């Protein structure tokens, strides 16, 4: 049997992948999610950490859609066709780089392989610079209830330095249009740690974003890693904030949004008080999977498109990142897996403990052994006021939450499909 990819010295074969899909076939309907990665953008932003390709070729996008249809056909042939899905997320890249007929075709492909029910939640990431009234109406009409717009920073110096110029007026117009059209939830994404970000400038961005009244705001950490992302060489490190300044920027975001009534969820998300994610966090049942935060502990995530990352039962599986390699494998009738790993019992328990800490900000005493030596390291953080220890376990203090945020952001940035989410580096 050919090897489709490897995790260190452990090959992940086609047989293993088929085995994972066969297990899913026998799993009752009711907790399935689908992620689709659209790997195209109009231009490359200099800070970008995503798997994407700049193209202006309609044909290239059409060929991607052909391969996507084939990949979905291969998977659903194995797990059963038109199974209901609870969650659909289309990310990228820039999903709204597709033109209107291509967006409509994307939805047709999805709906011919899966069933979206009235309860399904469909979300999509959009670049405001590519959005038009007609396009947003189409996206809403296709059934997307949640939409996310990348804002990053509204300061002109920052925007020039990261190669992403979009005025407040334009972002406001797009946001208000989406509101008027009737999207249930509008999310805005910010990035901190970018060149030329200053406390004053970032505060202005935070205030302007707040004025729009988004339902959720994500505030991501910029990771400068030109060795892995050569286009980041164009960012002059002399203009990047220091680690302390960067932490202060995030602190500003926390302060601004929480003062305005938003609730801080997990590592980097701010939501309204009645948001289900906040309710879940308060109840200690917030989770995180390849799609982000979720209220469902055992959701199975199928992923399609280059670099799509699936979480199926005890397996993590990542597709080929390179568009041409992904396409070639699919067109050759292969599952385009680049990396896969089945978690053993130790991995699972450790991961569960880490996710509990990241999402619910506490670790029950019963999970202490699952964290191995890191549990002792965490306990030592009590002296610095970063954690509180009781008979029930460990609870992160607000200060500790900032530290964990930095740690887990580092891990996410490594792009190894969540495998490190349960192996973080402890600061000294
Ligand atoms: S729009 Fe997003 S995915 Fe595309 S280049 Fe910019 S940051 Fe990267």
UniProtKB/TrEMBL annotation:
Top-tier EC class: oxidoreductase
InterPro entries in UniProt: Coprogen_oxidase_HemN (IPR004558), Coproporphyrinogen-III_oxidase (IPR034505), Elp3/MiaA/NifB-like_rSAM (IPR006638), HemN_C (IPR010723), rSAM (IPR007197), rSAM_horseshoe (IPR023404), rSAM_sf (IPR058240)
GO molecular function: 4 iron, 4 sulfur cluster binding; coproporphyrinogen dehydrogenase activity; coproporphyrinogen oxidase activity; metal ion binding
Record-listed [4Fe-4S] cluster binding positions: 41, 45, 48
Signal peptide: none
Cofactor note: Binds 1 [4Fe-4S] cluster. The cluster is coordinated with 3 cysteines and an exchangeable S-adenosyl-L-methionine.
Domain Radical SAM core: 26-258
Cofactor(s) of this protein: [4Fe-4S] cluster
Domain of life from the UniProt record: Bacteria
Annotated binding of S-adenosyl-L-methionine 1, by residue: 35, 92, 125
The keyword S-adenosyl-L-methionine belongs to this UniProt entry's keyword annotation: yes
Catalytic activity line of the entry: coproporphyrinogen III + 2 S-adenosyl-L-methionine = protoporphyrinogen IX + 2 5'-deoxyadenosine + 2 L-methionine + 2 CO2
GO cellular component term of the entry, any: cytoplasm
Metabolic or biological pathway, per its Swiss-Prot or TrEMBL entry: Porphyrin-containing compound metabolism; protoporphyrin-IX biosynthesis; protoporphyrinogen-IX from coproporphyrinogen-III (AdoMet route): step 1/1
A GO biological process held by the record: protoporphyrinogen IX biosynthetic process
Keyword terms: 4Fe-4S, Cytoplasm, Iron, Iron-sulfur, Metal-binding, Oxidoreductase, Porphyrin biosynthesis, S-adenosyl-L-methionine
UniProt: S-adenosyl-L-methionine 2 binding residues: 47-49, 93-94, 152, 164, 189, 223
Assembly and interaction partners: Monomer.
Role summary: Involved in the heme biosynthesis. Catalyzes the anaerobic oxidative decarboxylation of propionate groups of rings A and B of coproporphyrinogen III to yield the vinyl groups in protoporphyrinogen IX.
Protein name (record): Coproporphyrinogen-III oxidase
Organism: Thermochromatium tepidum ATCC 43061
Highest classification ranks of the organism: Bacteria, Pseudomonadati, Pseudomonadota, Gammaproteobacteria, Chromatiales
Gene: hemN
């Amino acid at each position: 049997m050919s090897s489709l990819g490897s995790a260190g010295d452990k090959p992940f074969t086609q047989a293993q992948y088929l085995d994972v899909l066969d297990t899913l076939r026998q799993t009752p309907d009711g907790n399935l999610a689908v992620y689709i990665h659209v790997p195209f953008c109009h231009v490359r932003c200099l800070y970008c950490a995503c798997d994407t390709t700049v193209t202006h070729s309609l044909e290239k996008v059409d060929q991607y859609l052909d391969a996507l249809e084939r990949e979905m056909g291969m998977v659903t042939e194995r797990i059963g066709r038109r199974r209901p899905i609870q969650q659909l997320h289309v990310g990228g890249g820039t999903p709204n780089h597709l033109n209107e007929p291509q967006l409509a075709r994307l939805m047709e492909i999805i709906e011919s392989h899966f069933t979206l029910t009235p309860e399904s939640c469909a979300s999509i990431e959009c670049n405001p610079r590519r959005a038009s009234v007609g396009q947003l109406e189409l996206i809403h009409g296709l059934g997307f209830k949640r939409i996310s717009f990348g804002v990053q920073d509204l300061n002109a110096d920052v925007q020039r330095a990261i190669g992403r110029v979009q005025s407040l007026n334009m972002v406001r117009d797009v946001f208000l249009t989406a509101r008027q059209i009737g999207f249930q939830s509008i999310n805005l994404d910010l990035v901190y740690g970018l060149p030329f970000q200053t406390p004053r400038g970032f505060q202005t961005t935070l205030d302007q974003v707040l004025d729009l009244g988004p339902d959720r705001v994500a505030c991501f950490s910029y990771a400068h890693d030109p060795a892995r992302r050569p286009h980041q060489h164009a960012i002059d490190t002399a203009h990047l904030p220091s680690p302390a300044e960067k932490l202060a920027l995030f602190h500003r975001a926390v302060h601004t949004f929480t003062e305005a009534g938003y609730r801080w969820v997990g590592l980097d998300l701010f939501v309204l008080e009645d948001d289900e994610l906040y309710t879940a966090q308060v109840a200690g049942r917030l989770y995180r999977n390849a799609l982000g935060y979720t209220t469902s502990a055992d959701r199975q995530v199928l992923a399609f498109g280059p670099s799509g990352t699936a979480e199926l039962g005890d397996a993590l599986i990542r597709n080929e990142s390179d568009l041409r390699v992904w396409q070639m494998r699919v067109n050759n009738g292969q599952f385009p897996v680049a990396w896969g790993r089945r978690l053993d019992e130790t991995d699972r328990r450790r991961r569960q403990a880490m996710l509990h800490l990241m999402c619910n900000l506490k670790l029950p005493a019963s999970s202490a052994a699952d964290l191995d030596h890191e549990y002792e390291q965490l306990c030592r953080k009590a002296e610095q006021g970063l954690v509180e220890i009781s008979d029930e376990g460990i609870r992160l203090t607000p200060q500790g939450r900032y530290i964990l945020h930095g740690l887990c952001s580092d891990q996410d940035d490594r792009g190894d499909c969540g495998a490190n989410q349960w192996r973080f580096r402890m600061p000294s």
